[in-house]
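Service request form, structural biology core

Requester: graduate student, group of Dr. S.
Request type: structure prediction, single chain
Budget code: on file
Notes: please return the result as structure tokens.

Sequence provided:
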Amino acid sequence: MNWKEDDLVLCTVKKIEGTTVFLELEDGTSASMVLSEVAAGRIRNLRSYVSPGKRIVCKVLRISGDRIEMSFRRVTGKERDRVLEVNKKEKILKGMLKTVAEEPEKIIEKIKKEYDILDFFESIQENPRIFERFLPLKDAEKIMKIFSDKREKEKFVEKNFFLKSLGENGAEDIRNILNVGAEIRYLGSSKFLILIKGKDFKEADNKMGEILKEIGRRAKEKGAIFELVKEK
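Core staff response, request fulfilled:
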């Protein structure tokens, strides 16, 4: 991949040495980030932001020759959620395509020339026959069946909660508290909706419990107010 400034990239933290965080980008490219680009102000607990093996969404700050400098703090919550959702959808698509194609990556690249991945998923929800534009008819029919079966089997659980930070870096704290790999939407007035998917209700409900517990733990650590909104 050819990266450019302001690109949003899912990165893996490789190591931290002194005041530098070393990262690996999606395509295996190496990059780095100074601590001042991890978070604004004084960082009390660095591991709550970055730690070896952790996957985070960063923005390309500048490129100088082979050197790529990244920023974590300049990524908004909305941008982060979108990158994570795109990555998730690409994995789902790749998994389906593997059943009929030897090189699913090439098909995905063809799709991405015409569609944003999220737009593609919305389009095939309405018209699964779009697969026929990228695959032989027989293979497209197999993919459409897999897609249809998966859609029918998935179950959803959603909860509403209240989260408010009283700290100096409130927005930054909220962003890190909610960086739990789940679909979370801001409803306004410090209220959020979290949506969890699973192969059945029990699995989705168990995931929900674990994620809410983690959000609660992080909120307590940051001195934030976290409360579930009771269902009426």
